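User: Assemble these into one structure.

Assistant: Restating your components, then the assembled model:
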Amino acid sequence: MAKELTPRAENYSQWYNDLVVKADLAEQSPVRGCMVIKPYGYAIWEKMQAELDRRFKETGHVNAYFPLLIPKSFLSREAEHVEGFAKECAVVTHYRLKTNETGDGVVVDPEAKLEEELIVRPTSETIIWNTYKGWIHSYRDLPILCNQWANVMRWEMRTRPFLRTAEFLWQEGHTAHETREEAEAEAQKMLHVYGDFAENVMAVPVIKGVKSETERFAGAVDTYTIEALMQDGKALQSGTSHFLGQNFAKAFDAQFQNREGGMDYVWATSWGVSTRLMGALIMTHSDDNGLVLPPKLAPIQVVIVPIFKGDDQKNAIAEKLDPIIKELKSKGISVKYDDDSQKRPGFKFAEYELKGIPVRLCMGARDLENGTIEVARRDNLTKESINLTDTVSYVEKLLVDIQANMLKKALDFRNASIKTVDTYEEFKTEIEKGGFILAHWDGTAETEALIKEETKATIRCVPFDSYIAGDKEPGKCMVTGKPSKCRVLFARSY
Amino acid sequence: MAKELTPRAENYSQWYNDLVVKADLAEQSPVRGCMVIKPYGYAIWEKMQAELDRRFKETGHVNAYFPLLIPKSFLSREAEHVEGFAKECAVVTHYRLKTNETGDGVVVDPEAKLEEELIVRPTSETIIWNTYKGWIHSYRDLPILCNQWANVMRWEMRTRPFLRTAEFLWQEGHTAHETREEAEAEAQKMLHVYGDFAENVMAVPVIKGVKSETERFAGAVDTYTIEALMQDGKALQSGTSHFLGQNFAKAFDAQFQNREGGMDYVWATSWGVSTRLMGALIMTHSDDNGLVLPPKLAPIQVVIVPIFKGDDQKNAIAEKLDPIIKELKSKGISVKYDDDSQKRPGFKFAEYELKGIPVRLCMGARDLENGTIEVARRDNLTKESINLTDTVSYVEKLLVDIQANMLKKALDFRNASIKTVDTYEEFKTEIEKGGFILAHWDGTAETEALIKEETKATIRCVPFDSYIAGDKEPGKCMVTGKPSKCRVLFARSY
């Protein structure tokens, strides 16, 4: 059928692209590198947003909105920031169009040139710190704990839907603190919020840790990250939280009167996750039949397909199911009842598998006779017949089971994909197989660059936790033999 | 005190600007015409969004996301659309910056010039219809009922916070239909959703009607509008819904196979409200003491200020109030308990009045003795002492009362501000006094333009409903004496 996906084993990358389009998640737009997020994809993103937003508010944050456009000069205020990544961006140079000479189109009006060019925000540290400067006078004005839900734009050369797009949707938290300790604690706290969200909502296990200097956010003192492992053995950086020190406060002269009456620069953090999480979700769970969604993010959690001949059977089944649907809904479970007689049941089954609906219920003439219903779960593709009267309690429990099972399955895969190696030769062999590798590194950017050049592997992070016995003990760099404090996490990545 | 506002009677415009800044709603940004929406202002907008989004979904709509940037050529596809308003917009011409010669700043890289310029969306009909074209093949693909929450940009020359800003936040619904009737019904349905929201959530009474051809959205066949009246007698267009006919479908060649097997162009609507609603909210209800918020949109509905000397009193009051706060919260009422001993109660009262908190509770030593509590309502500034034990039920009812009272007050003012006039002389006198005027008009753009030029008044709409006896009866144009079908609504406007 037209909806068939390229199998993962054949071409993982093509499978991903097929799935994004065929499951109606997103599509390319006529603007290079920008995607249209279709209603079904957007409904999943909305569920992510709601869960994240709740967690941000529970940890004391408020939302605000800052301008889309940033004066060009702001970008060069923090030297490392502009050096690091602010160059590939959309530049607004004019503010008016006019009708062309032939009267059938528009051209840029050369009279309407901006004095200073404006940049479509690639991230908002600069404009926000220029604003915070006016909000902060004394320690009493601190902390500031703001988050922004916004679109941002980075002119990436090679783009892929959700994973790397010129425009993407994200949230960016920007906080201001009185002390270094408080800011560091905030940056770590938000990383844990991301980790909790990834594991308990997305069912995506992540390794939390700190980035090497090379991989750090441009302008940060420390970058914390959550790293997930995709089914093809590549890592996906899924969220980052930055301790910015006083770098942006100094660049924008944001000082405050401290408790002793002196003046200090403000301490800062920023942290963000984006629609890239959709990529993590897809590539962690989905299979050759399509999307597999954890119940907590599924726009439709349960689909019910009646199989009938003629209106009498149709009505008899509907009558039986109506109270069950009502009860499921009353428990906050989202249910779709699909009695469309234009489409065959097999077609519907394939469609709902493609869309990743966690639970499918199916009732036919024999079920009607026997007082049973068929329950199919999307995560492991098993089916079972149960008593109709048990449906609600069964489904309620099943949704919890599926959520847990998806995390367990992904965690088992991830854990089985963490290896340790001690020699660079071994590293070169193992990295070809995919997965995470814990290895010793001498801590220098030179060795890191060499490894990247020779193997395409990067240091994903220095993990906070221990994953394999002894990985926190000192050793010798696999490349140079110089001393290493602990093993660090390598992988090829998206 | 520093927070004092310019009185409305002295300078209404300055009062508005003062209020926006001093109540922490928004502030100017360094980017011309773009504002920073501060957390308190954004929290109100979030409540509006949630209420609107729920209504959109209840009427069968889903959210999606389309690109920020639109290829320049798209804008000229629908001739009236580009002629009407798409010219004053931010134009992206380059996609890269580079370090300047002195190495201390960035300049636009002339090598990175786009082949075709991109426009920051002023509205999304063009990019969306270019997309819908691919989604629609047969009548079975219809209707499409999408909404988008997004930022848009129009390079306005004179800007005012919320009312007219270069960048603003909004939602834009874009729907596609099989028949003219269905599309027209959709456009009207969504106008009624806006009207219901304005009146029942914002407590802002609106007049619903259809725009004259001159005031119509560029590219629409009909534009429906909700018009509110501000305290200074000027009208504010608060939301519009457009029946677009087949104009955009023709411009983007979006055809579908109809039920008879032939090909038809798709029928379309679009509809939007924006952060401009914040301006309507402020200018309908607020007073010289600050913001007045309807309970349904107040981020904090109830503030409680204990008045105490020493920790014993502080603790005794807290102990009494703690169960009341818990009970209020359990009923979904948002409560702030402010026992900050650094600030005087009078300072707090002024601050919460400025912020428009609907209900203020205050408990002091005497209340503690008598088992009473003082209740102050923001809408009419009255105070009352009640039994402490009655607090929860009293407050619950009071919030409903305040919501209703605010609508009634605004409605009484609005209704008292609708006049009829029969001569143009009378019109010229009355329009100076502010308010709506129902008058006869000959239906020509020439007369409309003359009236606008001579009086600065525009036709706000041809109202659906009757507001003054006989206003739906035919008559003679006040300017030309030519026949008129019914009275139309004039006002000076924002």
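Chain B has a mean pLDDT of 96.
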